[in-house]
Amino acid sequence: MQDYSDNLSQVIERYILGLFQNEEDENFISLRRKELAEMFGCVPSQINYVLRSRFGPERGYLIESRRGEYGYIKILRITYDEPKEKSKHINDIIGDEISLHDACRLLEVLKERSFITDRERLLIEIALRNESSNKTPRKTARLFKRLLKSLMSSEISEENFIDN
Amino acid sequence: MQDYSDNLSQVIERYILGLFQNEEDENFISLRRKELAEMFGCVPSQINYVLRSRFGPERGYLIESRRGEYGYIKILRITYDEPKEKSKHINDIIGDEISLHDACRLLEVLKERSFITDRERLLIEIALRNESSNKTPRKTARLFKRLLKSLMSSEISEENFIDN
DNA sequence: ATTTTTTAAGTCAATAATAATCAATAGGAA
DNA sequence: TTCCTATTGATTATTATTGACTTAAAAAAT
């Protein structure tokens, strides 16, 4: 097992997570890349590395940013549980390979149990079908797991429903 | 939490949005460029910048204007009577090609407009990133449109699942 | 009726301040 | 070794602001 506990990226990651804890009632935090870099005595692009490797959509975060004067980086937390158990559960259920057909059946169950909305089911199904030419059961499983894990622990609430 | 959104363009944007709120029953507002510029102590072309960067069609607005005496700028809010129109709007805005970066920016706007939820935004971002090696702007646009249009049209139809 | 003047909006390029990207390199683990 | 994660810095792109110059519309003057 690797021990990265004292490398800079890890430290910056913990700092950002700490910002979220200080803003319990908000689901986003804002920061300035330049300031953070100065604070940790690193080059600014290191911040991008931390964001890319630890705060991407697959981990339940979205990034918004602006350049120029008044520039900023905003990190939105969409999901926020400790994913370990649920993540393992999803791994167990889907495994290394899954057919499109089985994936769709599982989506129905998830929808029945209100883990996902109809619209989310639609998006996932379209994404899984998209591989078109080379949609192997293996690739389907990988994408499927990534999609499900991303919204694993964010609760379905009123705001997750949009009429049309 | 720091706000960082205190630049002039943001202030002017919020002011204009406020005008729309004061005229809830109307789908347009009018203003005079020169007056606004004086009001905010800026150069008139700054108003054009705000309009160009924040009140374009992708954000659901159209601009009309006239020069000379009785000159004005009119900002219209686009409305949709049918889901079909939303779908067409999506088509127009995305076009045949789009970069991942621009797609993510558009998702930001769509969430802002409550066309999609944050969870849906997560799913779409992951799906668009997934193409990894062969994610051309053309393929990105095709998948992106298919995903969004499936959400915009209320009924689930066969055409949402067609590969290409 | 035509030309000139006045008034107001549009365009474009220059500048400053950020952030993003990309490729090279280093370091540690298997 | 070989692979993956981190670090670094040079280069590129974006955002907001400003002002000089251009264009358009209506009124005034002829």
Task: Give a nutshell description of this structure.
2 copies of one chain form a homodimer. The first copy, chain A, has 164 residues and is mainly alpha-helical.
Description:
- By secondary structure, chain A is mostly helical.
- In chain A, 51% of the residues lie in helices and 10% in strands.
- In chain A, a hairpin with a 5-residue loop joins strand 2 (61-66) and strand 3 (72-77).
- In chain A, helix 5 (100-112) packs antiparallel against helix 6.
- Chain A is elongated, with a radius of gyration of 18 Å.
- The mean pLDDT of chain A is 88.
- At the A-B interface, helix 6 and helix 7 of A face helix 6 and helix 7 of B.
- The structure holds a DNA duplex (30 and 30 nucleotides).
Task: Show the helix and strand layout.
The structure is a homodimer of 164-residue chains.
Chain A: H1 8-22, E1 28-31, H2 33-39, H3 45-54, E2 61-66, E3 72-77, H4 84-94, H5 100-112, H6 118-130, H7 137-150
Chain A binds a DNA duplex (30 and 30 nucleotides) through residues 1-4, 7-9, 32-34, 42-49, 53, 65-73.
Oligomer type: homodimer
Number of strands of chain A: 3
The helix/strand series of chain A, from N terminus to C terminus, equals HEHHEEHHHH
Largest interface: A-B, 39 and 40 residues
Extract low-pLDDT stretches of chain A: none
- The figure for the number of domains of chain A is 2
- Estimate the helix proportion of chain A, in percent: 40-55%
**N-to-C CA distance of chain A:** 49 Å
Task: Please give the order of strands in the largest beta sheet of chain A.
Answer: 1-3-2
Main sheet makeup of chain A: 3 strands, antiparallel
Hey, roughly how much beta strand do the residues of chain A contain?
5-15%
Shape of chain A: elongated
